[in-house]
Amino acid sequence: MSMPVLMPEIGVPAATVSLWFIDSGDHVEEGERLVEILAGAATFDVPAPVSGTLTRRLALPLDHVLPQQVLGYIDEDELHVETA
Fold first, then answer.
1. pLDDT tens readout for residues 12-59
2. Alpha-carbon distance 10 to 39, whole Å?
3. d(C-alpha 33, C-alpha 20), whole Å
4. Rounded to an integer, what distance in angstroms lies between the CA atom of residue 26 and that of residue 11?
């Protein structure tokens, strides 16, 4: 299952993607930093919401992003997927 990586609400109307720490196709652990965001003079790291493989990066460095915008997608590890 693909999980979106969302731009968090950080108290500003828009921010800029600085850099990605993980490349598409790489494995990431839940909580690991994925992408750095610039908002004025401050920087923020967006962590991985789940463990899995980063399959797509939609926002690239220097792109302006809005709160709750999808930055990319992670395919969850099979072991971490909960079933109902």
1. 999 999 999 999 999 999 999 999 999 989 999 999 999 999 999 999
2. 9
3. 9
4. 30
Range of the domain at 68: 2-78
Residue 84 in any domain: the answer is no
The CA distances from residue 81 to 2, 50, 61, in Å, are 10, 9, 30
- d(Cα 19, Cα 34) in Å, to the nearest integer? 9
Greatest Cα-to-Cα distance within the chain, rounded to the nearest angstrom:
44
Q: How many structural domains compose the chain? A: 1
Q: How many residues does the chain have?
A: 84
Indicate whether 83 belongs to any domain: no
Start-to-end Cα distance in the chain: 14
CA-based nearest residue to 14, from 68, 70, 64: 64
- Give yes or no for a contact between 31 and 46, defined as CB atoms under 8 angstroms apart: no
